[in-house]
Design a protein that fits this description.
This protein is of the alpha+beta class. The chain is built from 17 helices and 16 strands. The strands form three sheets. The chain has an eight-stranded mixed sheet with strand order 1-5-6-11-10-9-7-8. It has a five-stranded mixed sheet with strand order 13-12-14-15-16. The structure holds adenosine-5'-triphosphate and magnesium ion (MG). Magnesium ion binds next to loops.
Length: about 475
């Protein structure tokens, strides 16, 4: 206290204020680690991916669903698996002012399943939903791995036939192809039903127990609780031990085996290439039977972020969350950051170049007194021209003067603004054109510098034909 008091009296007040404010400002001007601002081409790529997904999913009978970004914490804690990475390490959980424990959603499925139950939609099955939006996981940020990231995903409720697994995978494959990512490789596996998994769990535990001294700390802990999760480990020491472990396919029940055979045969006959990866388990507890991932090997994503889309069947989830029993479900989610980093720029349509509309003030005649009146006439023209072009689907930006009306350099400045925004044309209107009647404008092609006087209706037609 004494030291602080001495400091306060010996330090000039201004300096104290400055050092606090610069530190605070520095912090304020930084986004939270692992979270990003998106604008320009970056956000345009996200929009394009979501639009592609939405259009495609609706052709398969899916409707959009949005659910809150915050859910009661138990929506995730009780469903994703207490021992999963997501619940164990990655949740953003806090107690709100009313004392409720809330969690920022780390994925879409649990919240949408909660919504199905809350809205009594289990009476109206089947239901197909697609969604997109931000998810939150407290992970170590890397290429293609953020703490706030976006997913596009789909969920099908109330269909148990294996053909619906095939259709859901086919939708995923078509979605990736529509983004130009046909190189993404499909890996598929069956986790089997409860009985299959119980048999396998025992065999795997026996095998891993003999190698327990070589396992990572996390895997050792999981050995007694949930040995299947060890198959999903990214630790090299675990991967080495897993090389010779028993495979799930040897423990599938007859029903699960036939179900999986149906799916692989159907995929082959539909010419959807895949490999069966007997070690594919997925990170969340709610999966059973079919699980799948689409992987890309690309240096832009780093070695552990190659999975761009992943999903599976989760028939038990609705009941586990308090809904009726026997509601079969399957879905997948794709990570937009990863997809967007892989996009070929040529595949993303660029924005139409805007047309710049310029009100040309008359420097000779504009006295201080009539400047405002002239501006009113001028800008009502400018607005009328702009809205008429917008109604015809042309992207228009008005180039406002930067200083007082009547400045000699004004037109030059407005034209250079138009070049800066990459406008294709400038459509100019000034007192000369206004005097000639309401329909005349001067049109300049900003690439060729060609100019001509046009009737506004013809200009719109001209511009539209140039856009095609
Ligand atoms: P990973 O093994 O890469 O951690 P995951 O199994 O945890 O992925 P899922 O829960 O299946 O991921 O989510 C589906 C998709 O969402 C992933 O395939 C990936 O494309 C994307 N995704 C998951 N976590 C992140 C993240 N932290 N940042 C960016 N994208 C992510
Ligand atoms: Mg993960």
């Amino acid at each position: 206290m004494a030291t602080l008091a001495r400091k306060l009296t010996t330090t000039p007040a201004g300096n104290l204020y400055r050092s606090f404010s610069s530190r605070a400002h520095k912090e304020m001007a930084r986004p939270v680690r692992g979270m990003k601002d998106r604008f320009g081409d970056d956000i345009r790529r996200f929009q394009w991916i979501n639009e592609k997904g939405a259009r495609l999913a609706s052709l398969y009978g899916f409707d959009q669903i949005t659910t809150p970004i915050l859910e009661h914490s138990n929506v995730f804690e009780r469903t994703l698996g207490e021992d999963s990475d997501v619940v164990g390490k990655e949740l953003y959980t806090f107690v709100d002012k009313g004392g409720d424990s809330l969690t920022l959603r780390p994925e879409g499925t649990a919240g949408i399943t909660r919504s199905l139950i809350s809205n009594n939609l289990c009476q109206e099955l089947p239901r197909r939903f697609y969604y997109f939006g931000p998810m939150f996981r407290h992970e170590r940020p890397q290429k293609g791995r953020l703490r706030q990231f976006e997913q596009f995903g789909v969920e099908v409720y109330g269909e148990s036939h294996p053909a619906s697994d095939v259709e859901t995978i086919e939708l995923a494959s078509t979605f990736l192809k529509s983004l130009g990512l046909e190189s993404a490789a499909l890996e598929i596996n069956s986790l089997g039903d409860d009985a299959s998994r119980q048999n396998y769990r025992n065999a795997l535990r026996d095998y891993l127990t003999t190698y327990s001294s070589g396992l990572s700390q996390d895997s050792l802990r999981r050995l007694s609780i949930n040995p299947l999760r060890i198959l999903d480990s990214k630790e090299p020491q675990d991967i080495a031990i897993l090389g010779n472990c028993p495979v799930l396919s040897d423990y599938l029940s007859e029903f699960s085996r036939q179900r999986f055979a149906f799916i692989t045969e159907a995929l082959s006959s539909m010419n959807i290439p895949f490999t069966v990866n007997p070690r594919l388990v997925r990170g969340l507890d709610y999966y059973q039977d079919t699980v799948f991932e689409f992987k890309v090997s690309s240096t832009v994503l780093g070695t552990q972020q190659g999975t761009v889309l992943a999903g599976g069947r989760y028939d038990g989830l609705v009941e586990k969350m308090g809904g009726p029993s026997g509601v079969s479900s399957i879905g997948w989610a794709a990570g937009l950051e990863r997809l967007s980093m892989l996009l070929n720029e040529h595949d993303v349509p660029s924005l139409a170049r805007p047309v710049a509309v310029i009100g040309v003030a008359d420097p000779e005649t504009a006295s201080a007194d009539n400047a405002v009146a002239l501006s009113t006439t001028l800008y009502s023209h400018v607005m009328a021209i702009s809205s008429s072009m917008r109604q015809q689907g042309i992207r228009v930006e008005v180039m406002y003067p930067t200083s007082t009306a009547g400045s000699k350099n004004q037109l030059k400045k407005q034209l250079s603004k138009a070049t800066k925004i990459n406008a294709s044309h400038a459509v100019m209107v000034g007192s000369d054109e206004i005097k000639m009647g309401t329909s005349w404008v001067r049109c300049k092609d900003l690439d060729t510098a060609e100019q001509k006087l046009c009737l506004i209706d013809n200009v719109i037609e001209d511009l539209q034909s140039l856009r095609k």
